[in-house]
Amino acid sequence: MAVGQTYVVLASDIDLSAGTIVSLVNVAVVSIIDGMGGSGCPSRSPWRPGWRSGSRAASSTGCASLCWIPAHRHHLRQRIVFAGFALWILPEAGKQVPPAVYQAYAGAVLGVPTVLLILLAAIGFAMFVGRTPFYHALRATGGNMQAAYQTGVPVARVRIVAYTISGLFAALAGLALVGETASGDPLIGGALTLSSVTAVVLGGTALKGCVGGVAGSILGAFILGLINNVIFFAQLPFEWQG
Predict the structure, then answer these.
(1) CA distance to 20, 177, 183, per residue, from 96 (Å)
(2) φ and ψ at residue 25, rounded to 5 degrees
(3) What rounded mean pLDDT belongs to the chain?
């Protein structure tokens, strides 16, 4: 989520709906797998039709941000709509995915942990985007939107692409949470929006836009995780995490 949020913040915006996309994808994927009989077939491959359908639902939901105008008031509407859909699909936490799904997520491919491959893929994506004209237009938009528009930068298109990337990474986060929690929860993404923004800021990306990058956001996410782990293993009150 922090990776996707970085591109929106670089454009001098904040994606307030990312957390609800996580929740929606989480419950949609779990419900699709369960509805196709996946919960009763733990011995099957995690890449069976139910899991593939869930993955397609995740990517489609993430890219749905294309249908919304990047503006603060529309973020609030989008949050309400996505949160409502998540509660409609699964009113309360529940349903289980086959063990093969979370075992694949917690496992390894050719000796390399799956979660590490996911992280490397995100870094590779960021490196690719960083070499494109879009990235330079994005930083220009965040630095001075009016000046960027006057010099021919397609500001509206750049912002829409940034929000689409954020939505896609939020969807991937929801898909990863299926593998981590092995169940669905319509409220699971509630606190993640603020956490993603915090990770971006800790990583050195300025909320005013233009300054920063994905590498810092990944480091910021690790810092947040480290703080929570220290508090947990030190047996300090859970409320101290905030």
Answers:
(1) 20, 12, 5
(2) -65, -40
(3) 82
